[in-house]
Amino acid sequence: MPHIITGILAHVDAGKTTLSEALLYQCGAIRSMGRVDSKNAFLDTNSIERERGITIFAKQAILNDQITLIDTPGHVDFSAEMERTLAVLDAAILLVNASDGVQSHTKTLWKLLQAHGIPAVIFVNKMDMPDTDKTAILNQLKNHFGGAVTDFSRGNLFTPDFWEAVAAADESLLEKYLDGKEISGQEIASIIEEKKIFPCVFGSALKLQGVEELINVLGEYFAPKKYPENFGCVVYKISKDKAGNRLSHIKITGGTLKVKESLGEEKVNEIRLYSGEKYESVKEICAGEVCAVTGLKNSFAGKTYGAAKAVPNPQIESALIYSVIPPKEIDIPQMLRILRDLEEELPELKVQFNEATGEINLMLMGEVQTEVVKELLQSRYQLPVEFGEGKIAYKETVLEPVVGVGHYEPLRHYAEVHLQLSPLPRGSGMRFVSKLSVDELDTNWQRLIMTHLKEKQHLGVLTGSPITDIEIRVLAGRAHLKHTEGGDFRQSTYRAIRHALMYSKSVLLEPVYAYEIVVPENCTGRVMSDVDRMHGTCTLDETRAGFSTLSGTCPVATMKNYINEVRSYTKGQGVLTATVAGYERCHNESEVIAQTGYNPAADLENPASSVFCSHGAGFVVEWNKVNDFKHITIK
Q1: pTM
Q2: SS3 string of 388-455?
Q3: Are strands 4-10 and 91-97 parallel, antiparallel or unpaired?
Q4: What span, in angstroms and rounded, lies between the C-alpha atoms of 620 and 554?
Q5: Does residue 98 contact residue 125 with C-beta atoms inside 8 Å?
Q6: What is the pLDDT of residues 346-383, one digit of tens each?
Q7: How distant is the alpha carbon of residue 187 from its chain centre?
Q8: Which of 40, 432, 527, 609 is most buried, judging by how many CB atoms fall within 10 Å of its CB?
Q9: What b-and-e string marks burial along 320-344, b requiring 16 or more CB atoms within 10 Å of the CB?
Q10: Cα three-residue angle 408-409-412, rounded to 5 degrees
């Protein structure tokens, strides 16, 4: 039977695990509700999760015949794990704590849902707490997320106010309403699917208030999608079971998958339907369902098979790089193997190795994830690993279009590539385009160039940081009938990028936080002054009950330790929440470039030079003379 795949998204301490337990209990999937403080929550299956009382890894649970739940982390340090699940969700439950209201991280989650086009129902939790005001909370939700937020609680459902809100979301429904005609449940489901309205339910997960209403909204107004007959699936997670078997967690986006069928060049040995730690092995899985399969060694989170659509590039990433300090008894190759093994489950770690210095670096989201990675390395591999102090993860981009040439022609090899690098809007990431005709360059060679553009993280020339927000367009290419091999185009493509960057007007980008600070009213001026000093922006959002709420953006480099200051000068009353909100022009670019001391011409792993051939021997041409030797002239 077709399923709705839903996941709970929330800021930390909103009650996400409690709501998961309540949903499972209400649907009869568990006999009693576990608790975080009792360390017996059904979906917190990892020992570190139970000990710390937080969700680290996304897990699947079958609620009933209609709904499968994917539990996701709420702590901001594990947001990347949460984001990966969005690729498979049909609907989301956005959880808001009635006492805290809409937090900075809640806004980030909302933006992600919008970016992925996922319809959502909002569950306002902890309404049993004193001084909660339903009307005030609903107004706050509408202010932040728009007037489409509609109260679907039992007390408001099918009232005149309810029908007015539903009708106002769609012209055709408004006409029916004004003509006195009935609006059907299917029509309501349609405008929810189109994200014209977002149902909202109020309750208390701990006391099972509003939970049944939430289940009814999901079951009645979030219909299963229709999927194509052509097979497709997307991998959203890699994990290992207790026996060490590698599991690829997938959603079928079309057709069916049977045991022993091939995905790419590998066979599926087993299909498992998980609910918590337990699973049922099945012989076949249908479109719209999620499962875990064994037998795949080359899968990774975000990989698609068959006709499945490509997964959007992740928006959440770490802003800090940490050096790994391994124990003396382990060698570097072994340490790298272990970290790359862990990276399969946590791809946001982005393991980096500098051959010249022998240093291993990881991208970590914050203090909590750093501690968890330490614990995982200790518990799984008995490795007491330490980390150096976190450094800012900078990026680079270009301000103007620039063309680069890469030529690779040692004896019996040949390839030349011309690329244009053009700036994209901030936050776009990398885009790769080839518009060459087959007459200019054979399709196979063009595909190979595109593969080489996408396969690695290309570095800039200011600090050796990754480049971003750039479109790379293939302008020209040439191969030799006898001498060109695949690796030749890899060399020429990489060199063309670096060649262009050497001529480019490059700029340095730094990560920025979107933050929200709540402080006693008499500390408002202090916050504004501090943020200005930290090169950030600051807006006073509201003042209520003696406290001020301020928000804005600020460089990670200047704000990363500010929470300690806030706690100090507010005597523990101040609260700062911050999430990485992308990259902006670096506020102290010259200083950072000087401190880095990067020399692009001396980076032998990323050469901007080209190799040409003369009198039967290859010779290197430095980047500033490559245009004098190139073989292709573009008019």
Answers
A1: 0.85
A2: CCCEECCEEEECCCEEEEEEECCCCCCEEEEEEEEECCCCCCEEEEECCCCCCCCHHHHHHHHHHHHC
A3: parallel
A4: 45
A5: yes
A6: 999 999 888 778 899 999 988 889 999 999 999 889 99
A7: 32
A8: 527
A9: bbbbbebeeeeeeeebbebbeebbb
A10: 135
